[in-house]
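User: Reviewer 2 asked us to show a designed sequence for the structure in our supplementary figure. I'm pasting the structure tokens here. Could you produce the per-position amino acids so we can include them in the response letter?
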């Protein structure tokens, strides 16, 4: 049985843990709200580009772009976004599990001969997907120069490198796996196609139905060739921010669970401490009373 001194030490340790998890929850909550704000600022930019492309697609002009030309997929790149830091529950584990399902589906779709290059963003995600290289034939891992905290400049450099690989036919398609941010309590593992772009990407949410006749200056081909890379960049930036918000939301939930467990354990230790203290006092009183009786 633990002594009063040992219980007091445990109570102090658990109380400190409760304060730490509470503070970390508040910090993660602030970071999550910051990412939410960045996400709200990005959406109008992407929506404007989508509207421009929708109007181009509804026009009678003819135009093409290498970024919009479908290919037979023999080499597939999958960017998977995770976290660089821990203490976010099963966030990276769930993403890695979903990635495994995506790899199986892509091999079924394109054949077992397809070569898949995984590009994990985040140290924790790189560790989580390391096993796929041994588990799946034709799967390789390439560590990029960006991480989950990279700013817009680094993300643009990363996107430019992906586009260069695609235009050089080193990869036939680029997908991205990430945790889509729905709300603070709900995030959904998602796979989106970055390249090549297809027309159905620009017809979602009624964008195409709102398109009106336009006169394009300069010509539609030049506008199309300029806007498509901007759209890929906007998509990628939005994915990075959604991943950041989802990571912090997962960390808030993990810290809340840890804080609740610490409170429960603290209550149990205090109850045990009070029982032991009361037992000690009762024993001392009985000894005193017994001594007086013998006198």
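Assistant: Here is a per-position design you can include in the supplement:
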């Amino acid at each position: 049985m633990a002594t009063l001194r040992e219980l007091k030490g445990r109570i102090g340790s658990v109380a400190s843990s409760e304060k730490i998890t509470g503070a970390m929850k508040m910090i993660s909550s602030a970071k999550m709200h910051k990412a939410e704000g960045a996400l709200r600022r990005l959406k109008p930019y992407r929506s404007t580009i989508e509207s421009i492309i929708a109007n181009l697609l509804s026009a009678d002009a003819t135009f093409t772009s290498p970024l919009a030309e479908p290919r037979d997929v023999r080499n597939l790149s999958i960017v998977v976004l995770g976290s660089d830091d821990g203490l976010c529950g099963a966030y990276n584990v769930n993403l890695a599990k979903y990635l495994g399902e995506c790899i199986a589906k892509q091999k079924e779709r394109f054949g077992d001969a397809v070569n898949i290059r995984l590009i994990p963003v985040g140290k924790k995600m790189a560790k989580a997907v390391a096993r796929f290289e041994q588990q799946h034939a034709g799967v390789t891992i390439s560590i990029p120069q960006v991480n989950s905290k990279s700013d817009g400049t680094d993300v643009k450099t990363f996107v430019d490198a992906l586009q260069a690989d695609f235009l050089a036919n080193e990869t036939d398609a680029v997908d991205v796996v990430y945790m889509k941010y729905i709300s603070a309590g709900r995030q959904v593992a998602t796979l989106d196609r970055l390249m090549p772009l297809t027309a159905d990407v620009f017809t979602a949410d009624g964008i195409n139905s709102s398109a009106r006749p336009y006169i394009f200056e300069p010509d539609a081909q030049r506008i199309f060739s300029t806007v498509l890379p901007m759209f890929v960049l906007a998509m990628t930036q939005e994915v990075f921010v959604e991943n950041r918000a989802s990571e912090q939301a997962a960390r808030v939930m993990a810290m809340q669970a840890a804080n609740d467990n610490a409170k429960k354990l603290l209550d149990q230790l205090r109850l045990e401490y009070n029982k032991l203290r009361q037992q000690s006092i009762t024993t001392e009183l009985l000894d005193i009373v017994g001594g007086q009786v013998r006198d």
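For the response letter, you might also mention the following. The first helix runs from residue 4 to 58. Residues 28-253 form a domain with the Pyruvate Kinase; Chain: A, domain 1 fold (CATH 3.40.1380.10).
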